[in-house]
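User: Can you recover a sequence for this backbone? Please restate the input before giving your answer.

Assistant: Of course. Working from this structure:
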């Protein structure tokens, strides 16, 4: 009878080891799948990794700059750029408004058609294009060839969820 108890105890112990192995394996697989899905969503073709509020300081005039990037119509992006002081507006209030799309061959590059409007009196003073290059998760470099290159912006908010276009 002692042997039977020993065999039963050994079988129960072996069963517990197998159960623990499957539990740990399942958790590891779940984590790997989650990480893979997050990586795909963050660097995929949707461009959601650009969404959010970004801030920087203009090294030329010291103005505080904020760029808001969110979902636009279809697969486009709406860009709103404001500064505490616009040199191009001779110190008057102004705003940059643009619509952008991901570069066809580089999903970390946002190409934006924009215009800068100065106020009091209201006038469009510049139309053109700028690019935003994503560096890591929390830094953008803005460039307008011939005007400025690699102006840094840092993320101050996460991407906006539920942008009104059915995407999350």
């Amino acid at each position: 009878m002692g042997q039977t108890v020993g065999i039963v105890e050994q079988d129960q112990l072996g069963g517990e080891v197998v159960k623990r192995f499957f539990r740990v394996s399942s958790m590891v697989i779940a984590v790997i799948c989650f990480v893979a899905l997050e990586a795909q969503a963050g660097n995929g073709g949707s461009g959601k990794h650009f969404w959010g509020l970004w801030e920087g300081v203009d090294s030329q005039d010291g103005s505080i700059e904020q760029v808001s990037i969110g979902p636009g119509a279809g697969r486009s992006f709406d860009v709103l750029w404001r500064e505490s002081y616009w040199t191009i507006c001779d110190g008057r209030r102004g705003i940059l408004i643009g619509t952008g799309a991901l570069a066809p061959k580089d999903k970390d590059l946002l190409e934006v058609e924009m215009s800068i409007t100065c106020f009091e009196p209201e006038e469009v003073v510049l139309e053109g294009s700028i690019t935003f290059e994503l560096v890591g998760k929390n830094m953008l470099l803005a460039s307008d060839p011939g005007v400025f290159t690699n102006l840094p912006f840092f993320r101050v908010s996460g991407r906006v969820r539920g942008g009104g276009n059915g995407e999350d």
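That completes the design. The chain has two domains: 1-43, 48-155.
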